[in-house]
Structures are given as structure tokens and as C-alpha cells.
Amino acid sequence: MMQFSVAPWRVLDEVHLKLCVEMPQLHQKFGERILQLAKEASMTGEPIIRHMDYAFPDNGYKKINDQFS
User: Fold this and answer.
1) Is the per-residue pLDDT at 69 higher than 60?
2) How many other CB atoms sit within 10 Å of the CB of residue 38?
């Protein structure tokens, strides 16, 4: 979901406005996969996005603190 307090085309430069157009298109492209992952997560309790130590336990990834930077 995207929500803006001000219409983006009024305040953003061309580069950043383009991103505001591209991101919903990308979300739409992967919409079915996102929905599938959400359904699986609701049934299994597993998170959709998993940090490295969760996905690959005991491989030394516990100390990584910038995976999503």
C-alpha cells in the first residue's frame, strides 16, 4: 500500500516521481506470488521474509545486522 499526504507529482522531481509510478507496477507484477506467500505464512506461522540465520541456522549468520540495509 502507498499513501501520500501530498500528491507526488506536485512535490517530487522527475526521478523520484518515476519511482512512485514503478513501485505499484512492480507490486502488481508480483501480486499473485505475494498473496501465495501470505497464505502460506498464515497457515504455517513462518515469516514471509526470513533473515539469514532463520533460513540457514547454525551457519554463523546470527551476527549479520545489515542484511536489509
Assistant:
1) no
2) 11
User: Can you give the pTM of this predicted structure?
Assistant: 0.60
Phi, psi of 12 (to 5 degrees): -100, 150
Q: Which residues fall within 8 angstroms of residue 40, CB to CB, at 6 or more apart?
A: 46
* CA dist., res. 24 & res. 18, Å (int): 11
Are residues 52 and 61 in contact, defined by beta-carbon separation less than 8 angstroms? yes
pLDDT tens-digit readout, 3-39: 878 888 889 999 999 998 898 899 899 999 999 999 9
- Rg over alpha carbons for the chain, rounded to the nearest Å, is 17
The C-alpha atoms of residue 54 and residue 44 are separated, in whole angstroms, by 15
